Amino acid sequence: MADVKLENIVKQYEDVTAVDDMNLDIKHGEFVTFVGPSGCGKSTTMETIAGLTKPTSGTVMIGERDVTDLPPKDRGISMVFQNIALFPHMDVYDNISFGLRLRKYDKSEIDRRVEKAAEVVQLNGMMERMPDEMSGGQRQRVAIARAIVRNPDVFLMDEPLANLDAKLRVHMRTELQRLHKELDTTIIYVTHDQAEAMTMSDRIAVINAGQLQQIDPPLVCYNEPANLFVAGFIGSPSMNFVEGEVAGSGFTSDDVKVSFNPSDYNLSRGKDVTLGVRPEDVYLANNSREAADPTVPLTATTDVLEPMGNEIFAYLTFDEDATSSMTDAQLPGQLLISVDPDTEIEEDQEIEVVLDRSKIHLFDTAGGKALTHEITDTGATSTAGADAEVGTDD
Amino acid sequence: MATETDTQQIGTNKEDEPELDRGPFEAWAARSIKNPKRAYRAMFYTAMIFFLVTTLFPFYWLLMVALTPDGSLQNIVLAPATFDPALLLAGDLTMGTNPGAFVEIFERLPFHRYMFNSFVIATVTTVIVLVVSSLAGYVFGRLRFKGKSPLMLLVLLVSFFPPAAFFLPLNQLFNRNFAVLQPVMSDGSLYNTPYAMIIPFSALFLPLSIFILTTFYAQIPDGLEDAARIEGTTRLGALFRVIIPLSAPGVATAGVLTFIAVYNEYFFSSLMTDPGAENWAPIVEGILGYQGQYQELYNNLMAAASIVGVLPVAILVVVAQEKIVSGLTAGALKE
Fold first, then answer.
1. ipTM, 2 decimals?
2. pLDDT in tens, B55-64
């Protein structure tokens, strides 16, 4: 049993706070992924668990032991690195057995374990190769074998697939999941690749600016993001945000109005809120049946189309002055929607779209905290027809 | 060859005008213009021969001096005056030269002991320098701390001083009797012991080695050290098991440079010891010991001793050559 517990971890580099009061409780056998933008502190957090970095304050527990002051070698962990980090002057056998030899295991025991580890990662018969004679995928498998051969309590993986090509990455992803099932150990995985995080993890820890934003199963992070950051970070392309405020009849902004009864969500009038909706939860008005609970149609103009093959991403503008150089979905007055590839749609075309009310998120603009993840009532005080409309007079 | 004939054909085809009457040098120049590779090859061989002659001729001359019988040094032209290959047929394997000098050097003085002295002093100094500069190189190359650059500069500053500046205070220090040393040294002073040379040499040659190893150790990716520490080494273990083996060219370069410098050192060694092999005097002292009162200042025994003395270093360089070359260039070319 090896739970990993971080209690109030703080790491400061001179005047920069890399990790800010991090609390994490990872259960034995769990596959937890740290995601976040570059420099958010996810790697520092992992290095703190590994013992490569000493926290400024706080405690690291592995199993029942306080390991905060232990060197890496005494923590019962192993690690796979982004740059693979095989020892270039040793062959595959020496690389895999490095840790065992340091711990003075019997020769026969080392042979047995190395052989077994090599079998798990399908490396048999390559024991005498040097790292520079192997392909990227093979090297990565050696690194994984080196990590599993010691039967550690916890595996740490710091972007292990980042340097592999796309096809190999997908393959290794499934290999890692198979490995997790076989080994039944705790895996902590750092990545900035959402697909890896979504597909492999039991839970995702979203980190930003050194702070833990949310730790939940992947679909919970996707469907019920705790705040604006998680909502924008998880999902590709990211969620559309429209800033507005609470009116008596619901949400209102220059471009989008959605009616509901504010008191049902404990919202006071005049509060600044941000509406979030994912591109796939916006439908063309003539397909509004597909939405579980459509709003009244909004009129918009298509700006840029991005045909992806299985879907088309269309950037819509509400503001007629918006130019096509403004292709970022986050820009005010823009909405990114995903439509069926068969849809007949052109650039600069006026279309009507509806939002799926059951998939609308509301966030507190000031604090970023999520207020609701669906809007269920139609808003008793609203008048029909004013449910949602496009603001043309700004 | 094929390209050469091709270009010549093209040349002749093109030139329908009458052949110019050229001298051999002009003809060579004309060919070189058509085929510049010839000129480059000629320049390469010229430079090559120049460097070979300037580096190897002194050795050749040493050998000739050593083979000349005592007292006839002035008669060497390119070989000793008495040299006559015809004597080989008469059964004289030496062909009129005097290889006996190579034996005589060991008879006249315990030259092997002088070599041993220099070898031991150089080896011990090299070991000390490599161990200390590895640790210092690790700190300067891989750790981040305040005041690193000024400290590194201070270390390098030591190597900017002329070593002679340190001589007087050191000589006085080593000639003083220390009660602490009484149980080890009979009179409690370091004068006439190898320590009087090993200690100052280690200090003098450290900065260069630290500088070389710092640049090497700094280039080893952090991930490798982290991996070693996760796998079960301490920081020191990672240094010796991963960082140093991967920096082998740098370690070899620093080691060989230190060894050669100490092995050939004369100034300090001669002043820290009395002449005489039993006083740990170095090779050069031994070579100078062949100067007899009524002989030429430079004689065949000195030449023979010089050749024998240079052998260990020559062997060392040949063995470590590959590593040294990659070491000297690797520092300059950062990947």
1. 0.77
2. 999 888 888 8
